[in-house]
Every structure is written in structure tokens, then in C-alpha cells.
Design a protein that fits this description.
This protein is about 80% helix and about 5% strand. It is mostly helical and about 130 residues long. A two-stranded antiparallel sheet has the order 1-2.
Length: about 130
């Protein structure tokens, strides 16, 4: 057998394999298992429910649909035990649902403000019509 600085090649091979196995085992041991994002899923479901209650179907249908689609994807990922993807989709669904709820509240507020302005306009017209010139 050949010698490489006093070490036989099979010893070098043995050392290399041992180091590779040790590195592999260290890599596997240091990668923690991702826990199921059950809390995030519940928070996201609640956000979608809030968006629906806020009138998301009427005032923010695109954002609400996006939230619901992402929530469905998160549910499928949970079923497949792909917890990283499930968490990511659930977080995105939560943000989309919060956007839908905020957009719905803003649209309702604008609708109420428009109604008040219209009422004021009608009252002004009535006052002007009944006042002596």
C-alpha cells in the first residue's frame, strides 16, 4: 500500500469516512424538528372569521379570498405534516385577513360619511328652500 506522510491510505479513508459521518450526525442533530403551528393556525382562523364578520365578502373580496385560499393551503400543509409551510401560509393568511377587515371597516366608514354628507346636503337644500329671501 502507498504511504502518505507515514499514514497508510486505508487509514486516511477510515479517518475521512469517520469525519463525514460525524459531520452528518452533527448536522442532523442540530436541525430541530419544526413543531406544529397550532397556535398560529388558530390565530389565523380567527382573523379570517373577523374579516368575514367585518364585511370582507362585500367590501374586500379579493383580500378575503386570498386569506381563505392561504388558510386552505395551510390546512393541507398541516395534514401533510409540512409545518414550516403551514406556519408561513397561516401567517400570510392572517395578514391578508387583517387587511380585508381593515379595508371593510374603512369602506363602511366611508359609506357612513357619504350618507352624513348627503343628509347635510338635503338639510341645506330644505333650509334654503324654506328661508325667506
Amino acid at each position: 500500500m502507498k504511504k502518505f506522510n507515514g499514514i497508510k491510505s486505508y487509514q486516511m479513508h477510515k479517518i475521512g469516512v469517520t469525519m463525514a459521518v460525524a459531520l452528518f450526525m452533527t448536522g442532523c442533530a442540530s436541525t430541530p424538528a419544526i413543531p406544529a403551528p397550532t397556535e398560529q393556525m388558530a390565530v389565523s382562523r380567527a382573523a379570517v372569521s373577523t374579516a368575514i364578520s367585518a364585511g370582507g365578502n362585500e367590501f374586500a373580496p379579493v383580500q378575503l379570498k386570498s386569506a381563505m385560499d392561504k388558510m386552505d393551503g395551510a390546512e393541507r400543509a398541516m395534514g401533510g405534516k409540512n409545518y414550516g409551510l403551514a406556519r408561513q401560509l397561516a401567517e400570510q393568511a392572517q395578514v391578508d385577513a387583517q387587511l380585508a377587515a381593515a379595508a371593510s371597516r374603512a369602506a363602511k366608514a366611508q359609506k357612513a360619511a357619504d350618507a352624513v354628507q348627503e343628509s347635510n346636503r338635503v338639510l341645506r337644500n330644505e333650509i334654503n328652500r324654506n328661508s325667506p329671501n
